[in-house]
Amino acid sequence: MRARAVALATLASVSIVGIGWQLGSSAIEASQSLTASSGGTATAAAASAAQAAAQSGTFTGAVVPTQYGNMQVSVTIANGAITEVTPLQLTNRGGRSAGISNQAAPILRSEVLTAQSAKVHNVSGATYTSEGYLRSLQSALDTAGF
Amino acid sequence: MSLDTRKTRTGTAPANTPRVTSPHPAYKKRMRLADSLQILCVASVAIVVAIFLADGGAAKFGTPADAFTSLGIVAGLVGTDLLLIMLVLAARLPPIDRAFGHDQAMAVHQSLGKPALYLILGHAALLITGYALAENVNVVAETWNMFTTLPDMPLAFLGLALMIGVVITSLVVVRRKFRYEAWHAVHLLAYFSVLVAIPHQLSVGGLLRDGAIARYYWLVLYAAVAGSIIVFRFLLPVIRSLRHHLVVDRVDAVAPGVASITLTGRKLDRLRATSGQFFVWRFWADGLWWQAHPFSLSSAPSERGLRITVRGLGDASKQLPHLKRGTRVSFEGPYGLFTENARTSLRVVLIAAGIGVAPIRSLLETVSFAPGNATVLLRSHSLGDTYLVDELTDLCRLRGAELRIIAGKRPQGVSTWLPADAVRAGISLSTIVPELESSDIYICGPRPWTDAVVRDARSAGVPKKQIHYERFDW
Question: Is the ipTM, as predicted for this complex, more than 0.90?
Answer without folding.
Answer: no
